[in-house]
Amino acid sequence: MTMKKTLLVALLGLMTMATAMAAIDNTPVSMTITLKNGNTVTYNASNMDSVRFVGGRFGDTGAIGMKIYLTGASASVDYLYSQITNVSYDTTPVVTSDIFTRVTSTSQLVAGKRYILVYESGPAVMGAISSSGTSCGLSITGTDNFAYTDGVVQLTEGTGVKVLTLGGTVGAWTFTIDDALLGHTSSSNTLTTGTNTTWSIALDGNNAVITNVNDNSYTIQYNKTSGQERFSCYKTTQQSIQLYVEDDGSAASVVAAPTFSPAGGSYTSAQTVTISTTTSGATIYYTTNGSTPTTNSTVYSGAITVSSNMTIKAIAVKDGVSSVVSTATYTIGSVSNNNVNANWNITGVSVPQSKADPTFTNQSTDDYAWRLEYPHINTASGNQRVVKSTSAYGITYSLEWDNNKIANRWTCYTMCSKNNASNVSRSDDFKADPVVTVSPSDSYTNSSTYSRGHLCPSADRLASKEQNKQTFFMTNMQPQYQNHNGGVWATLEGYVRNKWQPTNTTDTLYVVKAATIENVTLGNTSSTGIITTTTDDAGHTLVVPKYFYMAFLYYTKSTNSYKAFALWTEHLNGDNPSAATVISNRISIDELEQRTGIDFFCNLPDDIEATVEATATYWDNSSSN
Question: What distance in Å separates the CA atoms of residue 238 and residue 88, rounded to the nearest whole number?
Fold first, then answer.
């Protein structure tokens, strides 16, 4: 699409040509332009000669428009910023880790070597095999995970991209991923692990045709359908993929990412920050407004004085090759007890008691689901997201309700000094929840067998009578043996309540509590997550969970970091383990996600989430456990 050039030229006349236009650099970048009429236009690096800006980039003060010079075109394509909603640039930096190059010859297929599966048009690279739903290779995108240039992929340290080791022989190859064989059951589009599948590998130009030898109607392809992006096995024609092999040293040299001294963090006074790279002769470019740096950004030439809150991002570039982006965030001022989750309440927003919208996902435009305590919301038909709140103390808790199973999927809430005040006593006001389609009645028919077990505890919500009464909605309950509910479960709740005290370094605890209402995966084996069913006084059939669990996330100001762990307990009618035993057997959030198929704390930035969910880091605030 070409805009009218007359207005652009007229506007250029208002300033000198020298200051009006600036080139990006000698290396074209990919660019996506979203127009106000709803159209989106993408220009790839392969067909762009250069780009010049009129008055600066989109969003800059005084910026007017841009001229895009395409390969082989006699005239530029001109855009006015007044007609643009957004412009995004992909600088495709090369990062500081393993390098893989496209396989173009079968001679590059060697048992014992390491490979990755790539969809170049994304670009996307295969990550872990999904543990729930239709098994498949997760689609990993973004420069935080890898950098892509034509025929070269370079992985970021700590990336979610999975490397496969080739085994077997020609015509009967195997792939090993995470110490398990990559497999396909031939019963569906599943791509899973543990099945002894052998593969044939053929090359069709740049594309790799990887076929299940036992059922050659299935090949590994990429599904680019929005919301279903994945690597999997298909009979039907999807998107061709490419196979990349770990480089033997002939690929482009690596440029080391910049480092900051002192490191980002909270400081009580101004800091003098230096940036360096271990790559000799590299030029460092940086920004201080949070934007991604390019070779059009400020060149680093000396120490930067940081006297107020600032995020610095930097890249190192040598011979046209860029490092991964390094980021450091500095907070300057006294460290006070301001909740990291300042939105304990949602200012200016009327909090509805329910949102019965199964299409809810964790998006920044959502009034609630962006909150750190939220797991990923299920989009299954019949599910409702429910929020309980009071005008004085904000959100009491949130939950996801399954109307088909008549069961709570999870309850999540925060614990901080504001909403954990103790002003009233327990109300014992059990009641059906009027905001969901199907709610249990206020008691169970065989109540002598099962007690009404809270998820958000009454004792954690004593700030007001209204707040406490909200914990007695039956949607915040699961049928529990009293030996469990009044035993290990109550002890764990009391332990958390007593141990978690907001301080100047740790102020907010994010909690998810739930029980299993679907199958679970323990030791890579799927088993039932339900013991039996019971009924309520209204005749509803209710599931009795086999396992209960708690997930915790907390923030430490002194190190500007998060930590997390989970507690898991089998639901027994007798001989329950002690709370101390459950705590000593705590698990990571990654392990909890593997067991339940639920994505916890999904609103953390991806790099932070990957780190904190990998280990079960204890959060004790006292001198002893």
Answer: 27
Q: How far is CA 573 from CA 516, 544, 547, in A?
A: 16, 12, 12
- Beta strand extents in 156-258 (DSSP E only): 164-169, 172-177, 180-183, 192-193, 199-204, 207-212, 219-223, 230-234, 242-246
Q: Whole-angstrom Cα distance, residue 394 to residue 169?
A: 62
Integer Cα distance of 381 and 604 in angstroms: 26
Q: Is the pLDDT of residue 185 over 80?
A: no
Assign 612 to helix, strand or coil: helix
Helix (H, G, I), strand (E, B) or coil at 466: helix
Spatial contact of 464 and 471, defined as CB atoms under 8 Å apart: no
Q: What is the CA radius of gyration of the chain?
A: 28
Residue 394: enclosing H or E segment and its boundaries?
Answer: strand 394-402
Tens-place pLDDT, residues 112-138: 888 999 998 888 999 888 766 567 888
Whole-model pTM? 0.48
Q: What are the backbone angles phi and psi of residue 465, rounded to the nearest 5°?
A: -65, -40
Q: Distance (Å, rounded) from C-alpha 458 to C-alpha 425?
A: 9
Q: Tokens 């999927």 — which residue?
A: 409
Token code pair at residue 253: 């040299």
Peptide bond into 262 cis (omega under 30): yes
Largest pairwise CA distance in the chain: 86
Average pLDDT over residues 429-443: 92
pLDDT in tens, 147-163: 776 677 878 755 678 88
How far is it, in rounded angstroms, from Cα 25 to Cα 106? 37
Spatial distance between the Cα atoms of 385 and 351, rounded to a whole number of angstroms: 12
Q: What whole-number distance in Å separates Cα of residue 512 and Cα of residue 376? A: 11
Secondary element (H or E) of residue 584? helix 579-584
Round to whole Å and give the CA distance between 323 and 339: 35
Secondary structure (DSSP) of 545-565: ESEEEEEEEEEETTTTEEEEE
Identity of the amino acid at 553: L
pLDDT at position 543 over 70:
yes
Q: Which two tokens stand for residue 578?
A: 């002690």
Percent above pLDDT 70 for the chain = 76
CA angle 450, 452, 455 (to 5 degrees): 130
pLDDT (average), residues 488-513: 81
Asked if 612 contacts 592 with a C-beta cutoff of 8 angstroms, the reply is no
β-partners of residue 234 are 219
Q: Torsion over CA of 598, 228, 203 and 131, rounded to 10 degrees?
A: 20
Hey, which of 24-38, 153-167, 172-186, 512-526 has the most confident mean pLDDT?
Answer: 512-526
Q: Which residues pair with 398 in a beta bridge?
A: 387, 412
Question: Are the beta carbons of 128 and 160 closer than 8 angstroms?
Answer: yes
- Whether 171 and 213 have beta carbons less than 8 Å apart is answered as yes
